[in-house]
Protein 1
Amino acid sequence: MSQTATDKTILVGKNLILGYRKGKVSNVVAQEISFCLEKGKLTCLLGPNGVGKSTLLKAIMGHNKPIGGTLVFAGKKLEEYSPKMLAKKIAVVLTDKVSTGNLTVAQLVALGRIPHTGWMGSLSETDRIKVEQAIESTHIGYLHDRRLSELSDGQLQKVMIARALAQDGEVLILDEPTAHLDLINRFEIMQLLRSIAIDQNKAILVVTHDLEIAIETADQFWIMQCGFPLTAGVPEDLILDGRINLLLPTDKLIFDSLSGKVQASNSFKYSTITGPEDWVKWVKTALRKNDIDSGNYISIELPSAIEKIKLISKNGEECIDGIGTLVEKLKSMKSGSSH
Ligand SMILES: Nc1ncnc2c1ncn2[C@@H]1O[C@H](COP(=O)(O)OP(=O)(O)OP(=O)(O)O)[C@@H](O)[C@H]1O
């Protein structure tokens, strides 16, 4: 489904055909790619490995011209911008590690000004202000004079974002900025990007495989899937109308709209499990993971406080003191009944 352009739209892709040319032969990677990228929003681009996400980023950065379709940036065709002009408008953070460990944080962030100063140019007062603003808005002032080689992966990622911000383009593109980071840092980086999008009115486009964190932070999803047009929408709408399942083209997995998680789609019925909602959810998860269906028991009653789990089976009624023991018990009943 294509989006409609609004006054926030900065970049429009129309019927793009993406791929690579080798001599006269074009190898098409993805097609029917249409979108509107909006300022003031965090947009997450999701899709399986190899579907063409990085290829789309390369097209937007002007590094790999689409085989077909049009890209329009701020009302003008992308191909009409010189690489120098484009570098001032679109800042990029790629996944590659920096090999300039000897530079300090402030020196690296200052490199973001190169499109404005040139390689040999010295920083003007405006450039210095932009660098300090970028450092401040990524909350890395405490790292100002540290060497890059002394930073953790999470700190380094914030420095790379600061460098892109110093570039002061209207669009910021990041390819998997949370790869290699722990859960807390993944959240922090995505929340930081969202606040930058809103506070600085930037259009931020992030490629990520982190579905759950993307749901919590993104304003827009773009979903790429082999053989389908690009699907764009607000994550919550895509969840409720089921289009989120485009990300899971196998009937073995399904997106559970209540928990917001991907889970195995086996058709076991667990209607005989009763108790508090959180207990029911986690007992079902454990049973599903262990391939235990309701044929193994008559009912399970879950504790409301610190009582024990009550299992009613063909062997009678018994009290059990945890989900681990319950699973073991049901597994042994299952193997017993199959012999
Ligand atoms: N320079 C290139 N020349 C030819 N084919 C390429 C080139 N780069 C990528 N491809 C091919 O294009 C297809 C899409 O690759 P791309 O890197 O865009 O996927 P992706 O969705 O970003 O994957 P991932 O999630 O694994 O990063 C793949 O089949 C890949 O082999």
Protein 2
Amino acid sequence: MNRTEPVTLTNMCMIKNKDKILVLNRNDPVWPGITFPGGHVEAHESFHDSVVREIKEETGLTIKNPRLVGVKQFYDNNQHRYLVFFYIATEYTGKLQASSEGELTWLTKEELLYSPLAYNFDHDLPVYFDKNISEHLLDGERDELF
Ligand SMILES: Nc1nc2c([nH]c(=O)n2[C@H]2C[C@H](O)[C@@H](COP(=O)(O)OP(=O)(O)OP(=O)(O)O)O2)c(=O)[nH]1
């Protein structure tokens, strides 16, 4: 067992405004399609600060109440391990402004479910919409909820 395997920390945030959800249509060549905005936790940065910064960079909005609702891990094509911290935010200030990451759109939940999602992003969505359990762990390929 390799106990020194490097892990990249990332975050992703569902921003809600009444019945609308902000989605990012990523133009990333490796993982294109509809997801929520988010990105990497930088060295020496707190989890809270990283999600606020990434959302600001990708949407122009400053989120006020990011709430951690789940964590997943996955391995990319190079067998590099990632952890993704899932957040929900319902309060924000600022004006929507897209970045080079992709186009931003407000969708209803139904529109989101039928949109061209990024590969396997549909596996993550239950974590954001489950009202009964506040914290989830999505584990690797099995995508089981604990
Ligand atoms: N690349 C990739 N990212 C994924 C997958 N699944 C998944 O949840 N993610 C998450 C991890 C990150 O939160 C986000 C991708 O962020 P990114 O790699 O585009 O990072 P970024 O450019 O937005 O961040 P940064 O470089 O600006 O810091 O999506 C996947 O299969 N591939």
